[in-house]
Amino acid sequence: MTAVASDKQAVATPIFRARVLPAIILAAFALLPPLAMALDDSFLVFFAIRVMIFAIAAVSLALILGFGAMVSFGHAAYIGLGAYCVGILAENGIWEFYISLPVTLLVCGLFAAVTGAISLKTRGVYFIMITLAFGQMAFFTATSLSAYGGDDGLTIWGRTEVFGSSVLSDRTTFYYVVLAFLAGAWWLCATLVNSRFGRVLQGARQSEMRLQAIGIEPYTYRLVAFVIAGMLAGISGALLANAAEFVSPAYMTWHRSGDLIFMVVLGGLGSFAGAVLGATGYLVLEEVLSHVTEHWRLIFGPFLILVVLFARGGLMGLIPGGKRHE
């Protein structure tokens, strides 16, 4: 009986990881606006929008960090680039999504391709430092854009339009648009990881020499993953600009890149569900502690360190059968 039960659990676990847990998380987000309406608390919707936007960025980072062992300390640069694409276009009278979205993808993709091609020639701490350098380069470039606010940032007087319609001005509609992007980013990354591409990416994390011995060059696969991650993070930046109706160089500081890494690690490496849970837990804890004391970072920092040191598998490790989910 014990063996039969173990076999059933072994079969059920991958199904739970691949289908049930993502469905539960997305359903919870989908049901939040009606709940907020019932509680007459509009802040919940606004806060959840922010959580989902950073969850998209965390999922994109999880693709290269959790599955490709690429510790990028410049990932927030793509959030800033995506935000500035929307802001600069709006400042010049271009509001349509069918222009801003392709421009965001193109700019972030090109930046990721160029910086990734150079960064991926290095390994370990050298990779971390060069991605940090590129991220800071983007940050200081943004602060020098005096025509678009410089250090003070840029206010956007409205949200991106959809074929001339201001449908995204409605908070609930915008909420579900962000949720759709989160679901799409999650699905895309999960599909990539479960494909031949993903197996090569994970194989490169374990042993590049073995892949090269069978005629596979992992550099190209890593670069493609790096570009895809950058483009997805750019989308999160474009959504953030619309949510806040404001763009700031602070979006792309190395501190924000560190926050994203903490989100991924807090949720559990090698797990997109963990990235979403990590982003949620990180921002909820930040919000709660900031209302308790103005010195909340003194509590927040040690707590995150303890989680990383002692919670094996992060938040996903606390869920039965949830240590790894692709």
Task: Describe the structure in brief.
The chain has helices at 2-39, 42-65, 76-91, 97-119, 124-143, 171-193, 196-206, 208-213, 218-244, 254-267, 272-292, 297-310, and strands spanning 154-155, 246-247. The chain is mostly helical and 326 residues long.
Describe the structure.
This protein is 73% helix and 1% strand. The protein has 326 residues and is mainly α. It has a single domain, classed as ABC transporter involved in vitamin B12 uptake, BtuC (Orthogonal Bundle), CATH 1.10.3470. α2 crosses α10. It is globular and about 55 Å long. 42% of the residues are buried. Mean pLDDT is 88; it is low at 3-11.
| Integer count of domains | 1
What fold name stands as the CATH topology?
A: ABC transporter involved in vitamin B12 uptake, BtuC
- Write down how many β-strands occur, each being a DSSP E stretch of 2 or more residues: 2
Q: Report the end-to-end length measured between terminal Cα atoms.
A: 30 Å
SSE topology string: HHHHHEHHHHEHHH
Kindly name the structural category.
mainly alpha
C-alpha Rg (nearest Å): 20 Å
Look at the structure and give the CATH class: Mainly Alpha
Q: Low-confidence parts, pLDDT < 50 over ≥5 residues?
A: 3-11
CATH architecture: Orthogonal Bundle
Query: What average pLDDT do the residues reach?
Result: 88
Percent strand equals under 5%
**Outline:** globular
Largest sheet: 2 strands, antiparallel
Order of the strands making up the biggest sheet: 1-2
Number of helices: 12
Helix content: over 70%
Transmembrane segments: 20-37, 43-65, 72-91, 97-118, 125-148, 174-198, 219-240, 260-285, 297-319
Subcellular location: Cell membrane
Protein name: Branched-chain amino acid ABC transporter permease
Keywords: Cell membrane, Membrane, Transmembrane, Transmembrane helix
